[in-house]
Amino acid sequence: MSILVHDPGLETTVQDTGRFGHYAIGFPPSGALDSFAYHVGNALVGNAPGAAALEAVYLGPTLEFTADTVIAVTGADIPATLDGEVIPLWESVAVRAGQTLAFGQLAGGARPYVAVAGGIDVPEVYGSRSTYTLVGMGGFAGRGLAAGDELALGDDAVAPRAGRRVPDDAVPVHPEVAELRLLVGLHSYRLTPDSLERFTDTAWKVTPDANRVGYRYRGAELEFVPREQPFGAGSDPANVTDCGYPVGSVQVPGGVEPIVLLQDAVTGGGYATLGTVVSVDRDRLAQTKTGDRTRFVPVDLDEALAIRHDRTAQLERLRSDLS
Amino acid sequence: METRYDHGGDEFVYVEIDAAMSLPAHFTSLAITRQLAAEAIDGVEEICPSNASYMVRVDPDRIHPRDLVRELQRIESEVGAGDDDFTVETRIVDVPIMLNDPWTHEVLMRFRDRHQDPTGTDLDYGARINGYDSTDAFVDALASSPYLVTMMGFVPGLPWCFQLVPRERQVEVPKYVRPRTETPERAFGFGGAFAVIYPVKGAGGYQLFGSAPAPIFDAAMEQPDFAEQDSVVFFRHGDVINFRRVDEAGYDEVREQVADKQWRYRTAPVEFSPRRFLDDPDGTNAAMLEGLYS
Questions:
Q1: Where residue B30 sits, what CATH number does that domain have?
Q2: What is the bridge-based pairing of β-strands B53-58 and B44-49?
Q3: Where residue B80 falls among pLDDT bands split at 50, 70, 90?
Q4: Same structural domain, A41 and A159
Q5: Of the candidates A120, A139, A173, which is a domain's last residue?
Q6: Which residues in chain A touch residue B37, judged by CB atoms under 8 angstroms apart?
Q7: In this predicted complex, what is the ipTM?
Q8: Domain range for residue B175?
Q9: CB of A73 less than 8 A from some CB of B
């Protein structure tokens, strides 16, 4: 049982929950950027949490299935078809051997996910099936899919069947301006109070440099507080003594181009970081695209933990309703 | 110095021993993270020691990040600030480096618009702002004493190397004003007070001074050192590195061994004592080098 890749779209990769335990030697987690869409997709097709799925961006792939199976498309708002017939999103769908899944033009969001009963069966590398293209490890041959690839599928889905559906009110919407909740801190003291305020007041525009490594934004100029430079940092105002970067942290080299680091990002470096996007909201970020507007909304640690708690409870409810 | 505790979102705790780099700050971070690892606290997912700080990835469903901070403060008070009375079993590694090489030169000349000084090279700039009369004298200083790997990361296998010399002999340079979009594989760079080797081609903001002929990342584990360590990265946190200057012939010789999958790093075991080093830097370095090359 396998999937034949006829057209990979723009960049389609195999992803799971991520590669953990090696951050200290420089392995970022990788894994699905929109964790909610990924987890719900697996639940819809009867997979255990953690099965590998496909993540596409902007353009969906064209995929032929060699055997009968069950799939679910989640994430971006994008028309999906099986042999030309439109199929519902956020719902498990039966696929017959020889049928082809294709996608139309993106209507909202940025990243569709394709979950398949049994999961994508690629070897685990350092404990994960996620693709980390920068060093060519994990996923399918360490790279994005290409036409002609054949992906093996697992066979351990539990009672996969068509017609499981996520209730409408649980389907995320893709608003015109995405709001990302941010815990301000780390090296935020390096920015003037005015600049920090400007940071959260600005509707930032996603630049073309927006991918699994990170998203760069434009929209305002931020200023650093003058200082006596600590030894080891380097003299540029944005320089700090090199340290670890949390996933989701925001840095502003040069003061004009904030960068939010994502799941394939560098694990550390020497640019000042002004805070961290809460983990749940990386899902929202993953569904924004070049030209979209984004606002950063400050929250405190208790709110960040409450947001996480609510998301975990919602996923558990969905998993139990869908099983 | 006063330790600063902060939260990197809901998943990370960031602890800065000092905003400035120093060996005492680093050794404090090392002592705390060693103790933290030994305690195996539930909910501590990953421990990332770094130069003058460290970071912990936390599972907030198992331990509240504020409770974790309290545990970290307890450990800090137990090991004591500036604790350097311990020994690290490590190794010293001989790492050939060609400084002022043609490959990084070609790349850095293409990114002058992102540099502090568009008129010269990164080496000229580093020599000038550190008060050296010539690039040669600057290059001699860079290769004169070994370095300690005080942080790993950025991408898999990149070592941040802090030169084991008293502060007045340490080199310091800023990172590029805006990072380059390209850095050659195995480039030898310098940023802040740290030397690095870039494991793979990619973006980067460090000043480019040279090139290492030997791989430090090997995804297929083809070279015997990597296969033996069963790791795609060669260096480890706490390694001592001696950068040995080679010319183009020496560089090519290593590249041939790499092509034949026969490259081996020269290493020797070291018992590194922070206290002994701080008391006698030059004597400690001489003894380590003697162990490596004798």
A1: 3.30.1360.40
A2: antiparallel
A3: confident
A4: yes
A5: A173
A6: none
A7: 0.96
A8: 89-293
A9: no
